[in-house]
Write a structure and sequence with these properties.
355 residues; mainly alpha; 17 helices; 2 strands; 1% strand
């Protein structure tokens, strides 16, 4: 017999597939901008990621003797692969995308029971796995070569780069966070380090080195605001994460601006905007209550700043999200919503007071 929760029952006017579709729609502007910025190799990597996720998830579902089509049509596997793809270096070899997508949908999602049962965000779990296992491939960045420019590889050349992993000469570069981390380690002050390298307007619009999920801060922000306007997500976790990064960055920058980057550098760098609006808002791996979501987002932001500042990796969003995913059950245990018909302490409400 199926276990059915006690009444009252809330019926949402939107399905899981529509929610996933709306999130994918919000990602399209930043993704298309990334395609234009990095050309065909980025398109190939994105396509390989999605294909690997669809095939891998279909195979596992079939092994479980479940209907493949309904499980794939919810769009969760595609969204996971999409998020992973835009967090990868655009010129990463094809097998990085395949391994990451398979790990995300099979190990991080289906192994835990499928949609709604996973403990950790699948895309971020896959990214951390790839970063730890293949640090060279995951930290090799290239300068932006907009599609159609003389330096941009054509479709046929890009297929060779993507699938044969041919070396790319003269295009190696460092992301902004990597640049700051390297120069800080070498004892070069931030004022000298960022002089001529960090231009806030460029960082805002994305004309710099990074993944597709790092280089379009304004488009990701607009996509997040679109999701809030459509009530797909709430503002609590995103705002809390941005505050969790910006506040300590501001405080330490005021104390020693030549050793600690300011809030604008952190807010417009790395995968912070992607993480704030598309990762920490995952309803499966985040707390259920409004206060819990705010604490969750604040913890993600603070851990991101700590890892960026003192950790061994320039970027800390994925690590921070996984650590707070592990803390989600604890947050839900101590921060619970009021039970219907009872006060905050759990005592029944008087009949004349209603709810």
């Amino acid at each position: 017999m199926n276990n059915i929760a006690h009444s009252p029952h809330a019926h949402a006017p939107i399905s899981i597939g529509k929610v996933m579709g709306t999130v994918l729609l919000a990602l399209i502007p930043a993704t298309l901008f990334g395609f234009w910025l990095y050309g065909w190799p980025a398109v190939n990597l994105w396509a390989v990621s999605l294909i690997a996720a669809i095939v891998g998830e279909a195979f596992v579902i079939r092994l479980q003797d479940r209907a493949v089509r309904p499980a794939l049509m919810d769009g969760s596997g595609i969204l996971t692969a999409w998020l992973l793809a835009i967090s990868l270096p655009p010129f990463a070899p094809w097998w990085i995308a395949v391994l990451g997508s398979l790990f995300a949908v099979i190990i991080s999602k289906q192994l835990f029971g499928g949609l709604g049962q996973n403990v950790f965000n699948p895309a971020m779990a896959a990214r951390v796995m790839l970063l730890i296992s293949f640090p060279l491939e995951m930290t090799t960045w290239v300068a932006a070569t907009p599609m159609g420019s003389a330096q941009a590889p054509g479709l046929m050349q890009s297929l060779g780069i993507t699938f044969l992993s041919q070396p790319i000469d003269g295009m190696a570069s460092a992301s902004l966070l990597g640049h700051v981390k390297t120069d800080y380690t070498l004892g070069i002050g931030l004022e000298q380090s960022l002089s001529g390298y960090y231009v806030p307007l460029d960082a805002l619009w994305g004309s710099r080195v990074g993944s597709m999920g790092e280089t379009a801060a304004v488009l990701l922000l607009l996509g997040g605001l679109f999701l809030i306007a459509r009530r797909i997500i709430t503002w609590h976790a995103p705002v809390a994460m941005l505050l969790g990064v910006a506040v300590p960055a501001l405080i330490f920058n005021l104390i020693d601006g030549n050793h600690y980057a300011g809030p604008m550098v952190h807010l417009l760098s790395g995968g912070l905007m992607l993480g704030a609006f598309f990762i920490v808002t995952d309803p499966v791996t985040s707390p259920n209550t409004v206060l819990g979501q705010f604490i969750f987002g604040l913890g993600c932001g603070l851990l991101t700043w700590i890892i960026r500042t003192w950790g061994g990796y320039p970027e800390g969003v994925a690590f921070a999200v996984l650590l707070m995913n592990a803390a989600t059950p604890l947050i839900d245990q101590y921060i619970k919503p009021r039970i219907y018909g009872r006060d905050r302490k759990g005592a029944p409400l008087p009949a004349n007071k209603g709810n």
